[in-house]
């Protein structure tokens, strides 16, 4: 069984381009709080897929500052990515990774959680919301709709 954490970036501020939007003060606090929740639950990814946008990188950096280090990949395809681009990026996670995190944007993260969830419940993601899932697959390349069960969601 593999495990996946889906995290939407925290509240962002303004910039000249959407890609360059940093977190605002509230967002930085939210990202730190997410990190503390995962520390308390002892849930640490061993691989991270992070959108290359400023707000997603900053969310991950703040949340993970006390986590064990893990490889971080920033595929451009998950910046405001569609459901298919998120699934494709997840399917390319290397063998041996047991728990991955994807930090990305809405509506993609909401669609991803809904599609993977075998109950097909819509899990709307506000900034800094996350979902922790158990995947009923043995290889990331086999990821598909309804292969997951939600362990926790906030």
TrEMBL record:
SMART domains: PGAM. Gene3D superfamilies: Phosphoglycerate mutase-like. Signal peptide: none annotated. InterPro entries: His_Pase_superF_clade-1, His_PPase_superfam. This is Phosphohistidine phosphatase. It comes from Lentisphaera araneosa HTCC2155. The lineage of its organism: Bacteria, Pseudomonadati, Lentisphaerota, Lentisphaeria, Lentisphaerales.
């Amino acid at each position: 069984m593999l495990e996946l954490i889906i995290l939407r970036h925290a509240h962002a501020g303004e910039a000249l381009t959407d890609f360059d939007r940093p977190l605002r003060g509230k967002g930085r606090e939210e990202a730190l709080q997410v990190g503390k929740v995962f520390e308390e639950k002892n849930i640490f990814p061993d691989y991270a897929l992070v959108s290359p946008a400023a707000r997603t990188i900053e969310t991950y950096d703040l949340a993970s500052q006390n986590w064990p280090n893990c490889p971080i990949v920033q595929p451009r395809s998950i910046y405001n990515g569609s459901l298919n681009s998120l699934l494709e990026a997840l399917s390319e996670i290397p063998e041996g990774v047991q728990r991955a995190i994807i930090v990305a944007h809405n509506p993609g993260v909401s669609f991803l959680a809904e599609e993977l969830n075998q109950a097909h419940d819509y899990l709307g993601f506000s900034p800094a919301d996350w979902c922790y899932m158990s995947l009923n697959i043995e290889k990331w390349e086999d990821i598909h709709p309804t292969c997951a069960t939600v362990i926790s969601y906030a």
